Amino acid sequence: MKKGGLRWPHRPFQVICVLVAVLLAAAFSLQAVYAAYAAHPGARPVPDKPSLGTLGERLNANTIAIVSGNPNATYLTIAYDMSDVLDDGDNFRILPVIGKGGGQNIRDVRFLKGIDLGITQSIILNEYRESNEIGKIDDQIVYIAKLFNEEMHVVVRADSGITSLEQLDGKKVNFSDVGSGSQFSSRDIFRRLGVHPQEVNMSQGDALEKLKTGELAATILIAGKPAGAMGKLRSSDGFQFLTVPFSKPLQADYLPAVLGHGDYPGMVETGHDVNTIAASAVLIAYNWPKDSDRYRRIAGFVNAFFPKIATLQKPPHHPKWRETNLAATLPGWTRFAGADEWLAQNRQAQSAPAATSVQFDQFLANKRAAGANTGTDSSPEREQLFQQFLQWQAHQH
User: Fold this and answer.
1) In a domain, 126, yes or no
2) Does 287 lie in the same domain as 141?
């Protein structure tokens, strides 16, 4: 709903009701189809919703689906924010779809009919390309924009004696749901560090219960802070976040990050930030031919989305929107042509506000004075520094 109405992320009961209603409707529909086939084995399926009419055709032509994440993760909130801000009645509509997370979302954008957009992690895109697990995707998947950073949350019991990732070697650790970005990136991170925990996969709710009983040594969630599943935790219940150092093996593809009191007041004391790392979340699309209707839909989405970034960066929308920089590039990947065209025609809109730009220049000057490599405007080093600057800036407010 629009502002003033019910906000999805804050009303889990309504979310559950909607999901149950959808699942029941689907179940009854499937039951009817199977009954028809049983009665008439040779019958052909009835065409779906015949005679849509002008209104139905317009609704279908102006609706685009984006696959996101589960109700406790950041992706779904981000997708719902887009729907909240960009929906324009029958003229344009965003349809948020609950997904498994970053890994499965790439598969869904690549293969599922009706799914044109999805949110994933850049590191998983690279992994799929290198493994060729779902075939060549360089010319099948394009990106719209880099969105925000996803912090690594590693939760352990405070009385476990575990103080480092290395101590998880050989122990049971939840990598979150199968197909999630947390699963893929956790595997990558431990592989780079040479640590070999026993991977198990379950929801964060189930994992926290098993953490309490000692059945698990840790549970991991890689999601934009503050993440719903982590926001429920309290140190008084015996949980704590584990520090994740920005080790050299991780520096090529991850960023330094912190979990602070403002993010998780029940878990982190003021002035005792927990160092961790972050992956980059990116909005991707299927690479439809330019003369296709689906390409037109994605181009329409870009034309609606890009001008509204400033609106999305204001409350009550997720604070992660404040990290979105439309000009940021994804090395090694092609941006959707319609997005490139919009950026070329609206360079002013890409620029950071004047005050932010001046502050960032000063931030870079201080880094150079300290001997740091600040890179060029489009280099990975500059992108890492910009993300560090955003973190520094957030702590000033």
Assistant:
1) yes
2) yes
CA distance 41 to 320: 52
The reported pTM is: 0.75
For the chain, the domain total comes to 3
Whether the Cβ atoms of residue 301 and residue 340 lie closer than 8 Å to each other? no
Choosing from 280, 309, 341, the residue where a domain stops is 280
What is the number of H-type helices and E-type strands within the chain? 14, 10
DSSP tag of 335? B
Distance CA 261, CA 268 (A): 5
> Per the structure block, which two tokens stand in for 66?
């984006």
- Structural contact between residues 255 and 384, judged by C-beta atoms closer than 8 angstroms: yes
Burial class (CB in 10 A: 0-12, 13-18, 19+), 208: buried
Residues 326-379: tens digit of each pLDDT: 999 999 999 999 999 999 999 765 545 444 555 565 566 666 556 666 555 545
Q: Cβ contacts of residue 68 below 8 Å, gap of 6+?
A: 75, 76, 78, 79, 96, 97, 98, 99, 105, 118, 119
pLDDT tens sequence across 209-230? 999 999 999 999 999 999 989 9
